[in-house]
Amino acid sequence: MTAVPDIEFRGVTKRYGAVTAVSGIDLAVPPSAFVALLGPSGCGKTTCLRMIGGFEQPSEGQVFIRGQDMAGTPPYRRPVNMVFQQYALFPHLDVEDNVAYGLRQARPRLSSREIASRAGEALEMVRLAGYGRRKIHELSGGQQQRVALARALVNKPAVLLLDEPLAALDKKLRTDMQIELQNLQREIGITFVLVTHDQEEALSMSDFVCVMNGGRIVQLGQPSEIYDEPADLFVADFVGKTNLLSGTVAGHSGDLVEVALADGTVIAARKRTALQQGEVVSVSLRPESLSLGAQASGPFKGIVRNRIFLGSTAEYAIEVKGIGTLLAKADHLIGHGNLFKPGEPVAIGFASGTPLAFAETKNNGANQRVDKHVEIIS
Ligand SMILES: Nc1ncnc2c1ncn2[C@@H]1O[C@H](COP(=O)(O)OP(=O)(O)OP(=O)(O)O)[C@@H](O)[C@H]1O
Ligand SMILES: [Mg+2]
After folding, report:
1. 19 lines ligand 1 (CB under 6 A)
2. Whose CA is nearest to atom 7 of ligand 1?
3. C-alpha 345 – ligand 1 centre gap (Å)
4. For atom 19 of ligand 1, which residue has the closest CA?
5. 78: helix, strand or coil
6. Which ligand is nearest to the CA of 43?
7. Following CA atoms 40, 43, 48, 54 in sequence, which dihedral angle do they give, to the nearest 10 degrees?
8. Vertex 94, ends 91 and 98: CA angle to 5°?
9. Ligand 1 pocket mutation pick from 22, 47, 199 by most atoms within 8 angstroms of CB
10. Which H helix or E strand runs over 97?
11. How remote is the C-alpha of 73 from its chain's centroid?
12. 287-351 belongs to which homologous superfamily?
């Protein structure tokens, strides 16, 4: 490993009475990384963030920040700051006083000049220079979000923790803020840990994604790795759209497994784990890995039931006898008239990649260390 991780979890478990919120997590986040914790509601994302921030203590294991064991260190002594989902600005204070709030609590006391200059710097970082005297209710939702960010950045934390910070914003503003957050992270170069249950947000913003399920890390990797090479059925299903087809293992050929689908079609697929003859599996076919043709060229034939035109691409729901509805995504070539209409018969083939077959029993998350990613990223 090249550098001391900014954050490290060693065998961290958190229990609330009978509920195990986080279970045996090992994780090392390299310096200056943008990490997303992604997973469904209740999988333990916020709990992980709160243990980094010091608002919760692990029941077992240790949390390190920049190599220091944080056991017994209260939140205000940790070199981290957190932006909460409900960012709770003080409505009776103006923008500058909201941002400067933490600085005023600092002991030993800072001079008013120091406070004003640091608050000004933080406001500049989030592109709100000149807004210092505005009241909170005189700001848009996105601007309020930026005040919350400035407030968290003002005391120069080593790590910024963000718990679903964009959840309250509408889609357009959310997309703008996603880009701004990414730029901000690159500019100031500190580690950002972003909690989200929005897989698009996680994939588009972060250097690496930590997919969680049931209190465990199920996969850790760069966004393209998570999308292209999901570790198990849960990740394949949770991250991105995919068709999951049920089938049984009919044979093996080299590294590939032959899977007989419900309609008798046999397709070759890659596998994650050893699969037995006759074992029930799910095969994942990404919509964009399918190709559509008017002539019979692929393993499936179907009827277009629905088309969603998206400009550069079109998404089709295609009914395939014995299989069900397949989702396919095709590029729209302007002027080529290659759009299919509802009711039209189409043949479906494979455009790219090899389908992935997963054992139906879910891999409930062998924890992984991120050390190999430390090298890739730093
Ligand atoms: N203070 C608490 N007391 C008891 N159980 C808790 C407490 N905080 C969290 N939990 C439980 O721990 C589990 C993980 O909760 P956590 O808030 O970390 O989930 P999350 O992944 O952030 O979910 P969401 O996306 O809904 O915010 C849940 O089952 C939750 O009910
Ligand atoms: Mg949460």
Report:
1. yes
2. 16
3. 48
4. 42
5. coil
6. 1
7. 110
8. 80
9. 47
10. helix 95-105
11. 29
12. Nucleic acid-binding proteins (2.40.50.140)
The residue whose two tokens read 């079109």 is: 314
As a whole number, the mean pLDDT across the chain is: 89
User: Which tokens belong to 298?
Assistant: 């692929």
**Looking at ligand 1, which atom is closest to the CA of residue 47?**
18
The environment of the single-atom ion ligand 2, i.e. residues with CB closer than 5 A, is 46
Q: If you measure from the C-alpha of residue 17 to the centroid of ligand 1, how many angstroms do you get, rounded to a whole number?
A: 12
Other C-beta atoms lying within 10 Å of the C-beta of residue 211: 27
How many angstroms separate the CA atoms of 101 and 356, rounded? 52
Ligand 1 mutation target, pool 23, 38, 46, 216, most atoms within 8 A of CB: 46
Distance in Å, CA 210 to ligand 2 centroid:
15
Distance in Å, CA 339 to ligand 1 centroid: 45
What distance in angstroms lies between residue 168's CA and the mean position of ligand 2's atoms?
14
pLDDT of 378 higher than 80: no
What is this structure's pTM? Answer: 0.86
Tens-place pLDDT, residues 113-152: 999 999 999 999 888 999 999 999 999 888 898 899 999 9
Pick the CATH number of 7-233+369-375 from 3.60.70.12, 3.90.550.10, 3.40.50.300, 3.40.50.970: 3.40.50.300
Domain spans, the chain = 7-233+369-375, 287-351
- Give the tens place of pLDDT for each residue, 213-271: 999 999 999 999 999 999 999 999 999 999 999 999 999 988 899 999 998 999 999 99
**pLDDT > 70: percent of the chain:** 93
Q: Fold identical between 7-233+369-375 and 287-351?
A: no
Q: Is the dihedral of CA 194, 197, 201, 203 positive or negative?
A: positive
- Compute the distance from residue 91 Cα to the ligand 1 centre, in Å: 28
Write the pLDDT tens digit of every residue in 52-104: 999 999 999 999 999 999 999 999 899 999 988 666 899 999 999 999 998 99
How confident is the model at residue 3, as a pLDDT?
Answer: 84
Look at residues 149, 105, 102 and name the one whose alpha carbon lies nearest to residue 124: 149
